[in-house]
Amino acid sequence: MKEKNVLITIFGGTGDLAQRKLYPSLFRLYLKGELQESFAVIGTARRPWSDEKYREVVQETIKDIAESTEQAKTFSEHFYYQSHDVTDTEHYDHLKDLADRLDKQYDLQGNRLFYLAMSPNFFGTIVQHLESQGMLDTDGYHRVIIEKPFGTDYESAKKLNEEINDVFSEQEIYRIDHYLGKEMIQNISAIRFANNIFESMWNNRYIDNIQINISENLGVEERGGYYDKSGALKDMVQNHILQVLALLAMEPPIEFSERGIRQEKIKALDSVRIYTPEEVKENFVRGQYDDGHLEDKTFTGYRKEDNVDPNSATETFVAGKFQLDNFRWSGVPFYVRTGKRLTEKGTRINIVFKPTPVNVFKTSITEPSEQETLAPNVLTIYIQPTEGFSLSLNGKEVGNSFDMIPVKLDYRNSAEIIGNTPEAYEKLLLDAFEGDGTNFTHWDEVAQSWRIVDVIRHAWDNETPDFPNYAAGTMGPKAAYDLLAKDGFEWIWTPDEWYRERNLL
Ligand code: BG6
């Protein structure tokens, strides 16, 4: 492995994301030798920290994964802090002096990666200053990583993209969707394109419906201020859910490369039907959590959370049906469901296959089965917290009758494997160092996702919702169940049932 020579400048260096995700991920890359001697990090933010203070913070964030305090300290010595007002031109001059000095000191070969982990309002200002103040006047590569949210609707995203495009080309822009760095999300392509039994059946002849669940048991925690303006639709559906949908629905790429995959994902998103306001009402459900309890825990409703408007009309839950108008998927609903304060944390995908055309066991002359229909075969992809796949089949129940019972082929990664799985940010940072944009979102994907979501948002904004409408700890409002029932389907994943049966919910 060749070490990566790079200067990483983090805007928002004192923030939560930097501390929880970026520093530990950089450290893991250091442990693996991807970063060795020739790298440096400049953290910037408004706070007047010193290098010493910054390094202490960095050490604190990695203390549980470092082999010794000495090792953590040596790593943190690559970190430099610059107090910075992103609107003050002069500050970029200081930043440039520091960057040029570190470039020589660490042999960084002019390679510069800028990580924008702060309020998107400033992204345009930052990139313009990076160019005007000469931060990009080096021989190496210049790349920018941008955290979500990328805009708040299509128009704002387009404006933001134009501002960034004035300075960086599309190939130099790395828009993060951390779901694309998750091991099991990357595995979707492996399951599909390395197993002919699935890929040959991956279409509307054999698949009844697909269900994408991203369920969270936490509430909004300390992010009420952000979340109350965003809501689940923009926070989860516009990005993570539509990206997962694109990976499930896309055609096999000609080659497994950045270009190959992007082309197919864009086509898949282009085929998602853009709803009319009436269709939104029919196909999408929103919810907001009320007080609730689960086992011995009690939860307060969303409107009572910190920094949330007590009359808030923001949704903390979305369930919906996407329809893809192309040859492969016509007629197959893609149901999606995501929310806060649901029963369990879990991201899982269910591929529900069509039943056999007839149940021949029902007509057996000797011992007719009492079952009218057979349970569907379901392929489940477990993204988190457990990682693996299962396939449910029908087998014969032992005995004289010909009743079928579901049998599950189940594979899960062991705790040890999961423990060693690279964190999403680690993979994505490494990809950015290597110039591989496969697991980042291309502008065309972002634009189309906003178009899909904007019509839902507009339709909702024109009506006052009847909130709150689901108890914390449950899997969302009744309407989310009705949505599938009216098509003759049901949610495959029902973690709430286990608690209900025991009177714990
Ligand atoms: C983020 C959202 O993008 O994803 C959060 O802003 C959400 O609201 C988070 O909690 C979920 O990520 P993960 O990796 O915990 O599933």
From TrEMBL:
Binding of substrate, residues: H178, K182, E216, D235, K340, K345
**Catalytic residues as annotated in Swiss-Prot or TrEMBL:** H240 (proton acceptor)
Q: In which pathway does it act?
A: Carbohydrate degradation; pentose phosphate pathway; D-ribulose 5-phosphate from D-glucose 6-phosphate (oxidative stage): step 1/3
Instruction: Return the Pfam families for the record.
Output: G6PD_C, G6PD_N
Could you confirm whether the keyword Oxidoreductase appears in this record?
yes
What keywords are assigned to this protein? Carbohydrate metabolism, Glucose metabolism, NADP, Oxidoreductase
Look up the record and report any one GO term of the cellular component aspect: cytosol
Where do the Glucose-6-phosphate dehydrogenase C-terminal domain residues begin and end? Answer: 190-491
InterPro entries under this entry?
A: G6P_DH, G6P_DH_AS, G6P_DH_C, G6P_DH_NAD-bd, NAD(P)-bd_dom_sf
Q: Which EC number(s) does UniProt give?
A: 1.1.1.49
Family per UniProt? Belongs to the glucose-6-phosphate dehydrogenase family.
Task: Outline what the protein does.
Answer: Catalyzes the oxidation of glucose 6-phosphate to 6-phosphogluconolactone.
| Name of the protein in question | Glucose-6-phosphate 1-dehydrogenase
Q: Which organism is it from?
A: Enterococcus sulfureus ATCC 49903
